[in-house]
Amino acid sequence: MFLRVIVTFLLAFSVNANMLQAQQKPNIVVILADDLGYNDISTYGNKLVPTPHIDSLAMSGVKMLNGYCTSPICSPSRAAILTGRYQQRFGFEFQEKDAPIGKLSLLQEKKFYKRAHKEGDIIDLSRDSVVVPNGLPKDEITLAQVLKKNGYRTAAIGKWNLGVADYQLPDAKGFDYFYGFYAAAGLYALEKDSTIVDQHIDDILDKPTWFRRKYSALVRNGKPVDETEYLTTKFGEEAVAFIEQNKNDPFFLYVPFNAPHTPFQAPKDIVAKFANIAEPQKQVYYAMITALDNAVGKIINKLKETGLDKNTLIIFTSDNGGATYTTATDNEPLKGGKMCEFDGGIKVPYIMSYAEKIPAGTTYQSPVSTLDIFSTAVAAAGIASPVDKVYDGVNLLPFVTGEKSNVPHDILYWRNGYSKAIRKGDYKLYINERDKVEYLYDLSKDPGEHNDLSATLPDKVTDLKTELNRWEATLGKPLWKSRFHFRLKVRDRYYMFPT
Predict the structure, then answer these.
(1) What is the distance between the alpha carbons of residues 178 and 166, in angstroms, rounded to a whole number?
(2) Does residue 316 belong to any structural domain of this protein?
(3) Cα 343 to the center of its chain, rounded Å
(4) What is the DSSP string of 329-385?
(5) N or C, fewer C-beta in 10 Å, the chain?
(6) Per-residue pLDDT tens for 242-258?
(7) Around Cβ 243, how many Cβ atoms within 10 Å?
(8) Tens digits of per-residue pLDDT, 200-242?
């Protein structure tokens, strides 16, 4: 009897010790908004849309005042986040072209691929190996793959938008669990749902999504699913369920929301809170941000309920700036928005919370990049990055804690075909080769990019051009051509941007 008690005690001790050892590795939660502008949430100055849950992350951690993404459009930006590398290094320079897969038959898939093949996009049409060079290359390593190899449970919940070939899908890129859709956009609810407000935008980018008249093809681990719940809410609930199911093991939870990307749909009860706003598109847009904040709140509350908030690194950011062409946001005082390399298109809200590791309620001034998410996460997990890749991000933890006093990045770069930019210190050079314009700004004095200094500081222009050329020489060629050239009005004039 005594021996049995001792054995039972030792087994229990062993189980508890294993659980404790597992939880010594921090959980990693990356929450990604879609087209959320720098000033679209209240902690960054929005006075019309309360976002208390997202704000709470800033109150418990650090808010970056100069956080940048790597591209002013969704798909390339997300590629850089998951790989920790400038997406141009591996040819992911332009938006990944949607493939309408999911519930489609093989015949429909073949018709789509054959049509794309005529446009030079598809290089293999075999059923077993549909090679679509639109998306992550086979040899690119994601954060999920690195963490999974080191004992983490992994999940992606939301919008994928990184390719639809077998080797590009979430399960092939390190995720144990995926719930969401593969495309760039889709409805949040069935059109004309009596509980939902639908707001169409008179824009070429909005019309194709409504034409589908249904959700983008939703899947759970590759199998089609039907859904009736408002999608932003559903994504939050799926994230909560994953936390509950994996609370005894270290996990990496990537939640790439599609909110508040078009199409504009939001629950009526939330839209009603913005009845004082005159413009209907803004009412729905603000309600979508509120729904996003509510979903983030569910994730935060679940971490607190399980006690995991004490050992979880949480990062919240957006894939690019607000889409000004919807007229629902303007990114002011920043210039421009989604599609362009002015700061309105590439400067994003960026928050990190890590209990007892990052001082609560702090701000960080130096420029940082979403490239840094990969390096910060693997460093927090005590893992080395793969040695056969060039990584462009850095571990931000010693910078935001004050352990390091220098800056994470001396220079940040952007290139989207003929539209390019470089920031070195406080100076930023923007080049649009198609429009034949070059602008130099001193962001320390002119964050709104109003005053072009290129004529008065030609040596600075030359210096930044040299740095930009040096970086471009290290890049690969785009693996596919841009989809189209988007004509975007930025303040007083129109510019062309490839997507």
Answers:
(1) 14
(2) yes
(3) 17
(4) ---TTS---TTSSSHHHHB--EEEEETTTS-TTEEE-S-EETTHHHHHHHHHTT-PP
(5) N
(6) 999 999 999 999 999 99
(7) 22
(8) 988 777 877 787 655 568 999 999 998 889 999 999 999 999 9
**Helix H segments across 100-213?**
106-118, 143-149, 207-212
Give the pTM.
0.90
| Residue with tokens 């939330």, as numbered in its chain | 270
Q: What is the mean pLDDT of residues 174-181?
A: 97
The amino acid present at 74, given as its one-letter code, is C
DSSP state for residue 249 in the 8-state scheme: S
Q: Does residue 420 contact residue 341 with C-beta atoms inside 8 Å?
A: yes
Q: Look at residue 20 and tell me if it is in a domain.
A: no
Contact 263, 187 (CB under 8 A): yes
Q: How far apart are CA 56 and CA 65, in angstroms?
A: 16
- Whether 364 is covered by a domain: the verdict is yes
**Cβ 263 vs Cβ 200: under 8 Å:** yes
Pair 350, 340: CB distance under 8 Å? no
Q: Residue 207 is part of which domain span?
A: 28-99+134-410
> Which structure tokens are listed for 429?
């050079």
- Identify the CATH number of the domain in which residue 288 sits: 3.40.720.10
Alpha-carbon span 156 to 254, nearest angstrom: 5
Please say whether the beta carbons of 68 and 369 come within 8 A: yes
Six-digit token string for 325: 């062409």
Please report the pLDDT score of residue 4 as a whole number.
55
How many domains does the chain fold into? Answer: 1
Q: Strand runs (DSSP E) across 231-277, as ranges?
A: 251-256, 264-267
